[in-house]
Design goal:
Layout (H helix, E strand, L loop, with lengths): L8 E9 L10 E2 L5 E9 L6 E8 L12 E6 L9 E6 L1 E4 L7 E9 L9 E8 L5 E9 L3 E2 L2 E2 L1
Antiparallel strand pairs: 1-10, 2-9, 3-8, 3-10, 4-7, 4-9, 5-6, 5-8, 11-12
Amino acid sequence: MLNPEINPIQLAHEPAAADAIADTAAWCDLSKAKGVLITVLHYRGGDTDLVLHVHEGAAASGTTAITAAFPIWYASDALTDPSLVRQADAASFTIDTGVYTGSQVVQFFIDASILSAGCRYVQLGTAGGHASSIASVTYELVGTRYQNNEAL
């Protein structure tokens, strides 16, 4: 069953200019979860590619990118066809704004087991993006563990 109590959703970055998101999304603690589904909603306003990657850390800081490949899904024209299409596993993804116009949705699944030893936090990182493009980011925890209303 999927619901907000079992799969908590965290707003990682409010809608903002795509070029302003650069490494400023909130951090997500995976110590009490199997993993996290990171969702990026992007509206192309200008032709500057948005490169998405994920940071990891023992604390909620830094810009160390995850080097392991992870599952990625993509809807290249989400308002016309919202179907997410599985992409090849990779450690980053580029929204090619020269090819795709309109709205895009990108999802990453980060399994906590792929994080480096001692790391428990993840953060969406970005490079590029256009000031007239808009993007937002959410995290949905998967496989959370609770006992007596407290996260384990």
